[in-house]
Amino acid sequence: MLSETSANAYPAYRFSVAPMLDWTDRHCRYFLRKLSRHALLYTEMVTTGAIIHGKGDYLAYSEEEHPVALQLGGSDPAALARCARLAEARGYDEINLNVGCPSDRVQNGRFGACLMGEAKLVADCVKAMRDAVSIPVTVKTRIGIDNQDSYEFLCDFVGLVANDGGCEMFIIHARKAWLSGLSPKENREIPPLDYPRVYQLKRDFPHLALSLNGGIKSLNEAQAHLQYLDGVMVGREVYQNPGMLAGVDRTIFGDGVTDPDPVAVVRSMYPYIENELSKGTYLGHITRHMLGLFQGIAGARQWRRYLSENAHKAAADIAVVERALQLVAQRR
């Protein structure tokens, strides 16, 4: 288990929602926070170039999202340190370095999973950020890349980044990544999961905080992994079935609360939606993250269909959401 100091520094890592490109945007995170007070939420990966040179505000988020972590993509220690400082000033709770994404675009930018082959550079990046900020700096990575997939390779990577970079928290996706020949989707499904390897890593590095990512489908599975590790990270299952998150505070964090009612969760989103609509946000940009909320509940298909067919229309407003909600509520 974690030392007392590490446990205090990483309380929310017991359950986190993975960074997912094009999915975990600020609207998604605001919605997911309605389902769990304690789970740690991650942004989509944001590149250092976008933050430093982009015209938009790539660090925007709502105060209600806390605890929230920014995932950075990059490999220039100075640029990462600069972005980490900006993020800390904006109030983010943690900075995470992406060393796990295998897409060609990410590799061409020299970040993501390809950095597993450059452990010293990753250590330099982490150290630069740790020297620049006081909030935690963590690394999300794989168990290996290509034919560099031995346990010794993983230990050498983690050991160097921990010792030279000062990283105390790693999120380990329990699959290796193929840097060529597989799409990002295939890299999430084809390389086999190896949970025992991550368990062994925790035994060999007991002073580090380790969270497991990959293939977790239920809170029961999450609890089973937590017997061996400090945290679990769930991605697509939470996104596609947000109701899973509703039991996290009670089941994973031991909070004696009643699981949120999904109908009440939807209606609690109305002030946020109305505020965003007044700023020019399209309704569908928000409700697309809510489509899976009623999975397994009578009326779920009608909810999804009505929102999918109507939320993208130019004049769509709260009335669309309320009508979709009635299709569920009247069948409960």
Automatic annotation (TrEMBL):
- Required co-factor? FMN
**SUPFAM superfamilies found in the cross-reference section:** FMN-linked oxidoreductases
Q: Describe the reaction catalysed, as an equation.
A: 5,6-dihydrouridine(20) in tRNA + NAD(+) = uridine(20) in tRNA + NADH + H(+); 5,6-dihydrouridine(20) in tRNA + NADP(+) = uridine(20) in tRNA + NADPH + H(+); 5,6-dihydrouridine(20a) in tRNA + NAD(+) = uridine(20a) in tRNA + NADH + H(+); 5,6-dihydrouridine(20a) in tRNA + NADP(+) = uridine(20a) in tRNA + NADPH + H(+)
Active-site residues per Swiss-Prot or TrEMBL entry: 101
Going by the record, the broad EC class of this enzyme is oxidoreductase
Q: Which InterPro entries match?
A: Aldolase_TIM, DUS-like_FMN-bd, DUS_fam, DusA, tRNA_hU_synthase_CS
EC numbers for this chain: 1.3.1.91
UniProtKB keywords: Flavoprotein, FMN, NADP, Nucleotide-binding, Oxidoreductase, RNA-binding, tRNA processing, tRNA-binding
**Gene3D superfamilies documented for this protein:** 1.20.120.1460, Aldolase class I (3.20.20.70)
Question: Which amino acids does the record list as binding FMN?
Answer: 19-21, 71, 140, 173, 213-215, 235-236
The superkingdom listed in its UniProt entry is Bacteria
- GO molecular function, a single term: tRNA binding
Question: Is tRNA processing found in the keyword set?
Answer: yes
* Site positions for Interacts with tRNA: 98, 185, 188, 301, 304
Q: Where is the DUS-like FMN-binding domain?
A: 17-326
The free-text function statement in the UniProt record for this protein reads: Catalyzes the synthesis of 5,6-dihydrouridine (D), a modified base found in the D-loop of most tRNAs, via the reduction of the C5-C6 double bond in target uridines. Specifically modifies U20 and U20a in tRNAs.
Q: What family is reported?
A: Belongs to the dus family. Belongs to the Dus family. DusA subfamily.
Its recorded name reads: tRNA-dihydrouridine(20/20a) synthase
